[in-house]
Design brief:
By secondary structure, the chain is of the alpha/beta class. The protein contains twelve helices and nine strands. Strands 1, 2, 3, 4, 5, 6, 7, 8 and 9 form a nine-stranded mixed sheet that branches. Helix 5 links the parallel strand 2 and strand 3.
Length: 279
């Protein structure tokens, strides 16, 4: 019997070609990893808790959370990532569990987790009904008063990158940007095979609405990189202690500024499942 494809073939092919394992060890990935840990830390329950890391890749965040003493469950649709995550978990005293699965159908009972992290699903599902199903499933397996932290790519992301490095003047790149800015749909042109595979890029307000429509309470939306990455010498300055301090402070004081959110390539939304009517 043929195995059901858990995720779009294009996305699986993309991740089989690139190294998600080393992505967080270089360039923007280093700062992304540190910044996202700081954002997640705002919502981690103090004591040992049940955390589901959905679309958790090769398990870098799961490993970090397990080392903090939490009961972590990683769900990931890419077999290549599952193997790497398994190797990572095997080295730990407090191991995290690993499931080959995807966000629209979670193999957990109702009201199971204290915290759910949606790492990739929202930007890898182009259809609204699939994203709605993902949010609905996360809500189902979340305890009352539990928190969902979800990551999204901003609808302006490619356009900003294109403006900063001149790619906006390449016809195929510009056509891609126009589509993202108007519909949110991202499909990399054949001339740029290294770009992220098919995806969906959110407007901040729309991201918020997708969660509110599932009767989840919006807590806050955070810029991940913020506006600091627009510094023309960003990488050099982030390696300079004094300059990094200034850039980090800039991110912190603007992280919840709704007017500046579209200048950040990634954002994180925090929502809560309220205990209503004793449900």
């Amino acid at each position: 019997m043929k195995k059901k494809q858990l995720i779009s073939r294009n996305i699986e092919v993309f991740y089989n070609k690139v190294s998600e394992e080393t992505r967080l060890n270089k360039g923007m990935g280093v700062f992304e990893f540190e910044r996202i840990k700081l954002l997640i830390e705002k919502y981690i329950p103090a004591s040992s808790s049940k955390i589901i890391d959905i679309g958790g890749g090769t398990g870098k965040y799961s490993e970090w959370l397990a080392k903090k003493g939490h009961q972590v469950h990683l769900v990931e649709p890419i077999p290549k990532h599952i193997k790497l995550a398994q190797n990572r978990a095997n080295r730990l005293k407090n191991k995290f569990s690993i499931q080959l699965g995807e966000s629209r159908k979670l193999n957990f009972k109702n009201n199971f987790a204290d915290l759910i992290i949606l790492h990739g699903p929202l930007y890898h599902l182009q259809k609204k009904e699939d994203r709605d199903l993902t949010i609905c499933e996360a809500k189902r397996v979340l305890k009352n008063d539990g928190i969902i932290l979800a990551f999204a790519i901003n609808y302006t992301a490619s356009t900003l990158v294109g403006l900063l490095n001149g790619l906006i003047h390449k016809k195929s790149f510009f056509e891609m940007c126009k589509e993202e800015l108007t519909s949110g749909i991202h499909n990399p042109p054949d001339t740029f095979p290294w770009l992220l595979a098919e995806a969906y890029y959110h407007k901040p307000e729309q991201l918020k609405d997708e969660f509110i429509n599932q009767e989840l309470t919006h807590i806050n939306t955070y810029a991940v990189e913020g506006i600091a990455w627009l510094d023309k010498d960003y990488f050099t300055n982030m390696l300079n202690i004094k300059r990094k301090k200034a850039l980090t402070e800039l991110i912190k004081i603007t992280e919840n500024d709704s007017y500046l959110l579209p200048f950040s390539p990634h954002m994180m939304i925090a929502v809560k499942k309220e205990n209503t009517y004793g449900k």
